[in-house]
Amino acid sequence: MSITIDFLYWPECPSHPDAWERLQKVLAETGVEAQVNTCVIETEAEAEAADFLGSPTIRVNGRDVDPQTPAGAPARLTCRLYFREDGRPSAIPTEAMIRNALSDVQTLKEK
User: Fold this and answer.
1) Which residues pair with 64 in a beta bridge?
2) For residues 102 and 94, what is the distance between their CA atoms, to the nearest angstrom?
3) What is the DSSP letter of 92?
4) Which residue in 22, 29, 31, 88 has its CB near the most CB atoms, within 10 A?
5) CA distances (Å), origin 103, targets 32, 44, 65, 86
6) Angle, nearest 10°, between helix axes 16-30 and 95-110?
7) β-pairing, 35-40 with 4-9?
8) Is omega for the bond preceding 56 within 30 degrees of 0, making it cis?
């Protein structure tokens, strides 16, 4: 099973460059090889079509890196809010969220 990462962002969101850097850092540190696709979301229609939950959104093999993402959350053309492990808000996903999402996929890959 190959690993595909989708990095979706809205250009108006100031957080996406930091999220991109964090994703690249985690990939380099873990040595995970993945196909990384970037997708710019610029309209409400594009947000709806992509099930875009806000910028930035990172999905590993189609699953959001934030395990707290509610099923059926509405698509929106806006910046996104994540919550760190200690409950504090963050504009980007934590390294742990990204690592855990990659680890979950690798575990499935090994089975």
Assistant:
1) 59
2) 13
3) S
4) 22
5) 9, 32, 11, 21
6) 40
7) parallel
8) yes
Q: What is the pTM of this model?
A: 0.91
The neighbouring-strand residues paired with 38 are: 7
User: Residue 57 corresponds to which tokens in the numbers above?
Assistant: 């959104």
pLDDT tens digits, 56-104: 999 999 999 998 888 788 999 999 999 998 999 999 999 999 999 998 7
Helix H or strand E encompassing 46: helix 44-49
Domains of the chain, by residue range, sit at 4-110
Give residue 3's identity as a one-letter amino acid code.
I
Identify each DSSP E strand in the chain by its residue range: 4-9, 35-40, 57-60, 63-64, 82-83, 89-90
Amino acid letter, residue 89: P
What dihedral do alpha carbons 26, 29, 34, 38 form, nearest 10°?
Answer: 30
